[in-house]
Amino acid sequence: MIKKFIRSILGKNKKDASSTEPTILSQKQHGIDLQLVSPNAIRVTQTLQDAGFKAFIVGGAVRDLLLSVKPKDFDVATNATPEQVKQLFRRAFIIGRRFQIVHVMFGQELIEVTTFRGASADMAPKDEHGRVLRDNTFGEQHEDAVRRDFTINAMYYDPASQSVLDYHGGIADIRAKTLRIIGEPEARYREDPVRMLRVVRFAAKLNFNIDPASSAPIAVMAPLIDNVPAARVFDEMLKLLMSGHALACLQQLRKQGLHHGLLPLLDVVLEQPLGEKFVTLALANTDARIKQGKPVSPGFLFASLLWHQVLEKWRAYQAAGEYPIPALHLAADDVLNAQTEKLALQRKIASDMRDIWAMQPRFERRTGKAPYKLLEHLRLRAGYDFLLLRCASGEIDAELGDWWTAFMEGDGPEREVLLSRKPTNSSSGGGNAGAGPAAGASANTGPAKKRKRRGGRNRSKTGGGADKPSNDGEA
Ligand code: ATP
Ligand code: MG
């Protein structure tokens, strides 16, 4: 009774998690511009409705539309079963085993159609930490709404009537720029710890504040992320890093105490001034590329995030007597192995990272045919961009980056002049790339100064061949 009374004073937007009746907003009230809606998404809702089903655009697309942002993709929720959905469209595919969804294709565009989920998570099977393992029952629309993560992600838009159905006060939260988890935050994070990463991503991406009750449990509950399957954490990390707001996301991760253990040792890296500068520059660079609509490679991103760990180990192996090139491969192995457990780095991404790292000492060789050979490397551009980041962060002398810029842009005679020019940086040449001016003494003091390549490379644990490093061993 008292609860109900308090709620009535606070207004109808402060609904609790059991709301079954939505607030319905007209076009005038919500102001969504129909022009921003994908015609294919409209086609899907229309077709389903014509067949007698309920169908709405849902989730992130509605949130973005309310913020006057063109959504990057559209999800549809319906009370039709996956089989019923499939029958209505020519190119429709049922995906997933446990909870089936339907992918409806229109050329390149994919509309994801999901049947309303039902039943409370209380009944679902869980692991020993309370994480929901399966939640695959169909249900009513209001049940579907309550299982979504944030109030702003739990609204339904019907393009036909242009009305928005708001079950949990999402509109008010959009207006107040507040990210609020639906229901009891601790319980929701326990059910699915990935929601903690999603809070961070949306807060950074939308520039919203996190409701204090939604943010308070995160610091304590962060370790629960360790129990989430690595592939899922990886997907979410990738979304975070490719959101165009990676830098802001990382700052939020740190603020919320979530970076510990997510990328093992990333916290250590961020606490070293050079490491932090490198990561900051790399992410700012990525964000700028995404905002300009340019492609970003996950390999480059993760290679950047983990570079200072590689660097540290590279120096340690050299200090212990290993030669530079095999030392670099050993370092890469160590870092990749540690990350694979946590992040399930896909093979392709891991091999891209290795290529980018392995290319770095090759930039140090600025005589003879070596630079020409490097020009032919498939990932030259990524390796070169990476080199520039190392220069910009102060890890190595900017002169090396300038030299390569000139070499890549130069014509034949200009290149010959560059090749005959004596490098001004004493660290250059000889593949001892760990020994830049800021590289610390260890790299220079190790016994591994003599040039010895063949065979040395094969001393790395995987023989340097597990993920096929670039052919950097050739002299
Ligand atoms: P984006 O713009 O990044 O795609 P989104 O909100 O659409 O944002 P998706 O991951 O595409 O995010 O998820 C679609 C919708 O599914 C969300 O808006 C939310 O309603 C629901 N959802 C996704 N992940 C979860 C989760 N872990 N727990 C509860 N609901 C979720
Ligand atoms: Mg989405």
Content of β-strand: 5-15%
Q: Tell me the overall shape.
A: elongated
Count of DSSP H/I helices: 23
- Taking pLDDT < 50 over at least 5 consecutive residues as the criterion, the unreliable ranges are 3-17, 426-475
What count of domains describes the coordinates? 3
Class per helix and strand makeup: alpha+beta
Largest β sheet strand count, sense and barrel closure: 8 strands, mixed
The second-level CATH architecture of the largest domain is: 2-Layer Sandwich
Provide an overview of this structure.
It is a single chain. The protein is an alpha+beta fold and 475 residues long. The protein is 47% helix and 9% strand. It contains 23 helices and ten strands. It has helices at 2-10, 27-30, 39-50, 60-66, 82-88, 141-146, 170-175, 185-191, 194-206, 212-215, 218-221, 230-241, 246-255, 266-271, 273-291, 298-319, 324-343, 347-359, 370-375, 380-392, 398-409, 412-420, 442-445, and strands at 23-25, 55-58, 74-78, 92-95, 101-106, 109-115, 155-158, 163-166, 178-179, 209-210. β7 and β8 (163-166) form a beta hairpin. The radius of gyration is 26 Å and the shape is elongated. Bound molecules: adenosine-5'-triphosphate (ATP) and magnesium ion. Magnesium ion binds at residues 59-60, 73, 75.
